[in-house]
Amino acid sequence: STDPVAALFKAISLANVDRISEALQVLSTFSLQHDASVAAIKASIHIHNNCQVVDREAVSNLEDTLRDKLRNTRTAKSLYLESLYLYLIGEKEEAISAAESSVKIESNSPKVSALLGWLNLDSKKVRVAARYFAQALQDKENSDAALGELHCINPLEGLARINKLVVRHPREMVPIIFKIELLLNTRQWELLADSLLRAAGIDSTNLSVLQIQALKLVIDGKYDESIGIIEKLHTEIEQQEPRAWWLFLENVSLFSRVCGGNLILYSCLERYAKSALRVCTVKGSPKVLLEIGHFYYLWGKQLFSTGENESDVREKLKLAESTLRRAANSDESTRSLVFLIMIELVNTNTIKKQVYDQLDVLSGLGVEKDNPEFLLAKILARTVTDQDSIVQLLDKAVTAQQSKSSTFKYGVSYLIALNPQFLVDIAAVYPKSKLGEKHRIRVLMLVVETIPGFVHASLELGRAHLSLGQLEEALNIFEHVASVDSSNPHGYLLQAQIYIMKGDLEKCRDLLELGLSNNLQVMEFPQYHMLQANVAKSNSDDNLVITELKQAITMNKGKNMLSQEELSEAYLDLSGAYMRTNQKKEAAEAIKEARELLSGTDDNTIVTIAQARLSLTNGDIRGALSLLSSIPKGNPSYIQAQKEKAEIFLKELQDGLGYTQCYQALVEADPSTDNLTMLADAYMNIQEPELAIQTYEKAMGLNANDRLSCKLARIFVKCHQYSKAIKAYKNSGEEGSLELAELLLKLSQPEKSEQALANLPLSKKAIILAKIYEKLNDFPRAIAMLREATSLQNAADPEWSAKLYRQMAVYCTSQRDYKEAIDLYKRALKYTPNDSSLQIALVKLYMQVDDWTNCDETCKAILAKEPENEPALLTTADLALRRVDLPAAMSSFSSILDRRPDYWVALARLIEVCRRCDRLDSALPYLQLAKEKSGGHTSPGLSYCKGLYEWYKGDTQAAVASFNSARTDSEWGPQAVYNMIEMALGQSGNSNGAATAHRLLAELKPRGEDEENTIGLVEGFIRLATGDKSEIERAIIDFTSLANSEFLRVGASLGLAMGYAEQNQIARAKAVLKRIAKLPWSLEEADYLERCWLMLAEIYINNGVQQAAQAQELLQRVITHNRSCIKAFTLLAALATKENNYQKAGEHYRQAWHLSGESDPSIGYKLGYTQLKSKQYADAIATCQRVLQLHPDYPKIRKDILEKALPRLRT
User: Fold this and answer.
1) What domains, with CATH codes, occur in the chain?
2) What range(s) does the Tetratricopeptide repeat protein 21A/21B fifth ARM repeats domain occupy (predicted)?
């Protein structure tokens, strides 16, 4: 309150954020002070003059006061404060003049010297600044000068000095922030990380620390980790500096230029953009508008380049355009016009003529001298076609961009000025020639060195090296990409071997492929081929197993030789592969070769085991048993031999006694805990739990341990002896506690289940604890706990981390937070990138949110690795159906069923597609093939598919019988019941339909809110079917409530419209249907939506010919999605009849007649009538005869049509 220096800083800061009255209030206190008055009055005048509405009277009074003050003799302090004020408002020359005047009065003022240092430093006069700072540092306590001097010396020397300040002031933020900036300048990443951690410990909300923390993560390519910090930084700016638009803007500028086009980060930065626009001052507005427009341009361009939704691209580019147009009316008009042209050039396939006109205008203004974006625009617009000229212009743009950053040290300002994203855009446009690739490499090298985590730039750099044949350079770049993406590119054989030992063969294969892509010498190791053989064995590719093992044995020489154990394993597996492919001669030869190589070693008995397996393959069971029995006790292969003997007794001879005797022999030879455990397991395999329990108890008598207690508890569970199981689990350590919790949860005791986990660390119990909270219906708590567990889990166990994220994703999906669920599945895939079940779950979510592009791409990625992956194949087919590419959908579903005829989901989908294609009979061969595959056993899935086909074929009675067979099944039953209800409600003239439907509905037991709402929806349709006024009123109330549900909106709206129609409120029905008619078609709501279209079309037709066009469009829409819709064709025919176009009406009625199986007499009547009207007498007579043949009690057609057509045919 008494320091004029602090007052000036505060007043100018307040003025910068438009808090004018507060700024003037601060200054008013010092206007009367002798030394501070001139600076305070001048600052007040400056603030008044920069207001939108200037208080002229106040300014005049201040100017009068100022003139009076200036008549007095000036002091050194007065001139220093005036200089400081001028420095703060950016008037550097005048500030220097005032400071130098102060020095003339008082030559050794440290404050003035320090201020002169900063003034000269800002003017890039580093040596002069250094001299002034040195003078100021005669006062060793002058920290202002000490910090200023750091900017004038070498950063490494600066670090040595700043470290002293940090030690001297360990809890002060200013020194450590300076240190962080110097470490960033010198790119000392590890030290920077340590200093950031220390700074965050002092003040976790410091804006500079948060910004550089986020920047460091983005530079490393750790975008997911950076998002939380960037969001926190925004929150802190909002709290600490809510009016500081330039802080919001700086972060938009920084992160949008270095984030590598990460769309999630763009979404995060939009908050900054909106905040900057919201709080910017009039003075700052042009700069803000230009930068925010540029940000939305970058976002839209990235969305376009990654093939995102076209509407999203349009939205972002439209925002960019509108923002830049506002900026075009300011001092930033030239740059904004260039960016407006760049927006037009996002899609270079369609360049408008006005772009060329604008480029010509700007070129005439000499824009290209200092505007690299303009140079790029010229290339993108193809105004320059000569390759050498293109290279020259792009080089010029790069040079111009680099010159912008040359005045800064590496850091925030440097990265904003350099704009790595723009350099990548420039690099992309270099010609695909040798010269172009060389220049592309130069630019991309600059980007990758600046931002190592910019993966897209690294990939493009690798490709450029590759195109020039620089394989090693490309290899190094791709290794760098792998390291940024958290997959280890080194030590492939050792990692693969570990994954083989863990049983994760898919990861082993991926690592070996990755190793090959980086270093072909991996293939020279026999261990590599051994590992490849293991992978091939898991894929049942025995031919590849043989090839790889033969290669491993051939290459078994030199320094990379296999051990004897590995060699014996190779021969054992090779002979086994030969046997599985029925190459018995080759198997015998391999065994012979192994016997010669391993003769005289302990591993020779492996050959005996292989020989026994061959004997078994030849049907010589006794010979196999004899060979295995020849392996003596004490031999390393004795246990393996006894196990193989036991398997022969159990599987070949079905001899349970002989099976257990093999394990008893092991116990007799060595009554160890392990052998007793194997004997107990054997008893369980032959359903002898009591003997198993006795044996486990003996084993525990020798060595009671957690593992045995667990096994014993599991047997008690199998025997339904839950109290004993619980007691055993309580003495079985961590694993037992986890299984105990699961048991108690199954027994519906969630509270006790949670107690069982009390002493376990969160990292161990997270999944089960989440299931407990799920049982308690506390999903937010479950998600929060799992999220906490992920923060504790290290990367050493990627599978567990993936499991945690998967479980969170499942819960988010159940809570309909699809965006978060998608992000969580993606995070899980970072830990287990080849887990196809995770990818399939992600695909289902993409389908849920109509993200067809990502859905398709993910399916292709799965099928590239697993061409037979059924869920992926089914999803690909589903995608075609959802895109209404019915032929492609039919082909895809048929392909799946050719491989697996009893894949009921695919068969049901095929029947649906065939119906929609009006090719229902095409599904019949697949239905028959499925029946043959089932071998006379009618599964619920087959019954459902059969019922579906019969229903669509019009055989209602048979369909009801088939659906009835499936209705008790947990998977197919509910939908079968819904279909039966639909059939009951759809039978005209059946007064008991509603009662039947209601009885069927009562069978359904809802599992969750969604199913309850679905049942409520169907119940509403049943109420409508009763025709009772009160029931219709009740149905309308229920439908109104359900219409707010995202997933039932279409069905509820249909019911609402039907209810209004029943009450003869056609206008209200029409209003409801018009809202729904605009919704896109989706597979889940297809039937309801098509019925809405039909009902609205019928209303339009009834309204007269003036709305015929709307009706026609709706009906065509129905037919596009369902070519077997009888009502669509009958309504089209009715429309044509109203227009007296009987020829066209007849065509539509003929199609409807065909689709009904020529069984509906009313359609036959209408067809005959239109044929009579269009003078097609022979056709009319044939139609009448067909109707009368099927429905002799339908005399109306004889009198109205047949008797009129016959005489006209004769004449």
Assistant:
1) 761-833 (1.25.40.10), 1006-1124 (1.25.40.10), 1125-1211 (1.25.40.10)
2) 871-985
